[in-house]
Every structure is written in C-alpha cells, then in structure tokens.
Design goal:
Elements: E1 2-6, H1 17-22, H2 28-39, H3 45-54, H4 61-68, H5 77-86, E2 89-98, H6 99-109, E3 113-122, E4 125-132, H7 139-151, E5 158-162, H8 168-171, E6 176-180, H9 184-187, E7 192-194
Parallel strand pairs: 1-2, 1-5, 2-3, 5-6, 6-7
Antiparallel strand pairs: 3-4
Length: 207
C-alpha cells in the first residue's frame, strides 16, 4: 500500500481557511498575523487555533459554508491527486483547518479521505469553539502512524506534503518529505523542497 498525505491550507488550497473566514468580521489581518506565527512555529498550535476560532464567534454557518465552497485551490491540485491515484496511492488530507472546507475539497479534488477539525455552532452561528482530529502540534504524526498501521503502509511507501510547523510531526514517519512553498521550520525537516506554486512538481519525486 502506498500512501500520500497532504496538508490542506497553503498546500492543496492557496491560502488559509481561517483567514478567509475572518474577513466578513473585519478580522482577517488580526487572524492572519496569528496564523503566520503559528505556521512559523512561534506559537503553540492548539492555543493559536482556539484563539483564532474564538474570534469567529457569531459568524453564520451559511457564510462559513459559502466561503469554504469557494476557496482557491493550488495550481496542479486536481492533477497531482489524479496522477498519484493512478500510481496506486491512497491520497489523504490532514488539516488543522475545518471539515467545512476539506469535505467540499474532497468532492472536487477526489482524494480518498480527510481528517480535520469541526467548528461548533448553535442556532446557525459559530460559538467560537472547535474540536476534532487535528488540534495539536503532534496530531498529524499521530494520525499518520495509525493510518499506516490500518492500511499496511510503510514509511518507505509514504509521501507527505506540507508547508507549516504543524506538519513536522508527520514528516517523522515518511521517507518522502515534501516542503511545499513552506516555512523555514519545515524546510529543515524535508528532503524535497518545492518553491513554485505548482503541485505537479511533486510528481518528479514520487513513483
């Protein structure tokens, strides 16, 4: 079994979902500063995530879903997933972002499964609370190990692709570690670095 795991925000998608969600509230710049620091590894991921989601309190779920259905995918996203599946890979997304975005992206891009977080809502509006599979710095590595055991995929047959500090934990358990337009903290852990916004460049490093 061959396994390819992608981060979502700033990897398969060109931008950060939570920054887009903050825009209707007039908080995009404030949230983006926290996001950037978290992705550089300067802030604890859990604390930064919960702080940012609190700022979204009151946002209508309908607005959330509309934004998440219109996020811009990274150039080459659909093509690279199609090619990897032809090569025999199971393609999975691990996201510190939100299911509203990753579930829609799964339908459009065709990857096999998504693991992400859930924005809690009540009466059609966000409460400012969040929970789910990808809440901590270690979450992606932990989930990758479990998925490898479940599928029988060895590290030598595993490709991981990400851009930020919270992707480091999954880099530990894959032979092919791709830093895509990434922060310096992740490049240090990678054995493939791609600087151009074109996901099809990944195909030169897999088989």
């Amino acid at each position: 079994m061959k396994l390819a795991v992608f981060d979502f925000d700033s990897t398969l998608m060109d931008g950060e979902t939570i920054d887009f969600l903050a825009e209707p509230l007039g908080l995009k710049e404030k949230v983006a500063v926290i996001t950037e620091r978290a992705m550089r590894g300067e802030l604890d991921f859990f604390e930064s995530l919960t702080t940012r989601v609190q700022l979204l309190e009151g946002l209508e779920v309908e607005t959330v879903d509309t934004i998440c259905r219109n996020l811009p995918f990274m150039p080459g996203a659909k093509e690279v997933i199609e090619k990897l599946k032809k090569y025999g890979y199971r393609v999975v997304v691990f996201s510190g972002g939100f299911r509203n975005a990753t579930s829609h992206a799964r339908e459009v891009l065709g990857f096999d499964a998504d693991f992400s977080n859930v924005l809690h809502s009540r009466n059609g509006r966000l409460t400012g609370l969040v929970g789910g599979d990808m809440m901590f710095d270690f979450s992606k590595g932990d989930m990758l190990r479990r998925l490898q055991r479940l599928l029988g995929a060895a590290p030598k047959d595993t490709v991981v692709v990400g851009d930020g500090a919270n992707d480091r934990s999954m880099f530990e358990h894959a032979e092919t570690k791709i830093a895509f337009c990434a922060k310096d903290i992740l490049k240090k852990e990678a054995n493939v670095i791609i600087e151009r916004k074109d996901l099809t460049e990944i195909l030169m490093h897999v088989s």
